[in-house]
Amino acid sequence: MAEASTASNAQTGILGWVERTGNKLPDPVFIFFYLIIALVVISVIAAMTGVSALHPTAIDAETGGALRIEAVSLLAADNIQRLWVEMPKTFTHFHPLGYVLVVMLGAGVAERSGFFAAGMSKAVKSAPKALLTPVVALVAMIGNHAADAGYVVLIPLAGILFAAAGRHPLAGIAAAFAGVSGGFSANISPGQLDALLFGITEEAVGASALDPSWTANIAGNWYFITAMTVLFLPIIWYVTDKIIEPRLGAWTGGATAGAGSGEEIETQDEAAASKGLRAAGLAALFVVALWALMVFAPGTPLIDEAACEAIPAADCSIHSELRPLYQSLVAAFFLLFLLTGWAYGRAAGTIKDHRDLVNMMAESMKDMGYYLVLAFAAAHFVAMFGWSNLGLITAVHGAAGIESTGLPLPLVLGLMVLFAGLLNLFVGSASAKWALLAPILVPMLMLLGISPEGATAAYRVGDSATNIITPLMVYFPLILVFAQRWKKDFGLGSLTAMMLPYSVWLLISGTLLIVIWFYLGIPLGPDAPVGYTMPTVTP
């Protein structure tokens, strides 16, 4: 494996400052613990000084006016008792926890059986030479469902395929990295990321108590992320072929120059992989048919035919009846990944018996160990924010402040995208950042007329666009290693400079997309409008 010199890895300027500053930050788990300590101190001061706000949806039964929400000290006896007594409940009832663990039980099998890797390899290897860049970019964005496999398998494979086609392998690595990481939120269907982010969004809405009836729908950004995929594909194609590859120059190193380290990519027997993919395809069709049966068959459990009985016909829609279907998508993805992975493994020989299947599911849970620790800290931060009332108070005053500026709401969303992109340079974890931001931003934007789905969509645009230019991104060093197989003196600065055009164009285009989307009022997903109307005020 080639290693870059110290000089080539040194970052200077703004990117060097980002790297040095980010490296000084503690682990996200401890960031949450430090924030909890700060939250306790602030809650005590706020309670002592009488910080308060008028609740936007609740009426005080005694006065008949809006209910006044006052800051509550987290050192009050009730809150101290609540912290220790409800600690197991606070952790286990954290919405993202169940969503993510259920989906990952199935996705772990699909990844470890080789299904994800074989599917991506088959797709890009079959691409015509003229369409190599867009196929790599598209598979990379869709491959986000494959988690680590997108980085570990597709990115080095793209370099090899570009070299075999007589093109610069670093351009292939760049295109794949831009798709997998820069287009992290883009896809043609919801998946693990949607379950994770919407779980946090639901927790934030629940903590604010603004709309107790609102529940997460992991398909809430489906239309939007599909549009992101359609938009990002030609951008990555153009940047790769017209900006990055011309700067890299002609490739003269041959198709195997990058394999000199002896760490060649391991591929399964083509016949076994093809057999496994056919079996996985049949399994996928079975899951789709099963869910269709539960929707269209008589007496189906996934249609709430009584949903419109208690509301006026004008206020009812097909989405009200389909709510059980939307809520079942977490289980659907679990079963889809589980059965396709199992079918592939049985046909390809990577799963011998049921014990292999169980071991793969267990291994996927081992990989979630860090997430469990992070979720424990995040769950208590979000819950304590709600107990103190500071989240709602901050949201009310923040919304009033934004309204006083006269900024158009689409511009507010655009600024949120840019803020998320900036924060992403320092804190890489998507779940950690959203758990930090959602308790304030989600209710604040709801008060301004932007739905929780709209807030989530704006966040994910900014979160993904700058992944590819921060050395703090967990896979950044791995991508550097892949690049150094083809060019030994390729350093951190070189990789950042190569990916910067992608980041700029993805951030600009994504910001424009969310702004225009809001102006047009297009639903972000099924039963997921971009606008939001506060529920009727009740005593």
From TrEMBL:
<feature type="transmembrane region" description="Helical">
    <location>
        <begin position="29"/>
        <end position="48"/>
    </location>
</feature>
<feature type="transmembrane region" description="Helical">
    <location>
        <begin position="97"/>
        <end position="118"/>
    </location>
</feature>
<feature type="transmembrane region" description="Helical">
    <location>
        <begin position="325"/>
        <end position="347"/>
    </location>
</feature>
<feature type="transmembrane region" description="Helical">
    <location>
        <begin position="279"/>
        <end position="297"/>
    </location>
</feature>
<keyword id="KW-1133">Transmembrane helix</keyword>
<feature type="transmembrane region" description="Helical">
    <location>
        <begin position="368"/>
        <end position="387"/>
    </location>
</feature>
<dbReference type="InterPro" id="IPR004697">
    <property type="entry name" value="AbgT"/>
</dbReference>
<keyword id="KW-0472">Membrane</keyword>
<feature type="transmembrane region" description="Helical">
    <location>
        <begin position="434"/>
        <end position="452"/>
    </location>
</feature>
<feature type="transmembrane region" description="Helical">
    <location>
        <begin position="407"/>
        <end position="427"/>
    </location>
</feature>
<protein>
    <submittedName>
        <fullName>AbgT family transporter</fullName>
    </submittedName>
</protein>
<feature type="transmembrane region" description="Helical">
    <location>
        <begin position="495"/>
        <end position="520"/>
    </location>
</feature>
<keyword id="KW-0812">Transmembrane</keyword>
<feature type="transmembrane region" description="Helical">
    <location>
        <begin position="222"/>
        <end position="240"/>
    </location>
</feature>
<dbReference type="Pfam" id="PF03806">
    <property type="entry name" value="ABG_transport"/>
</dbReference>
<feature type="transmembrane region" description="Helical">
    <location>
        <begin position="464"/>
        <end position="483"/>
    </location>
</feature>
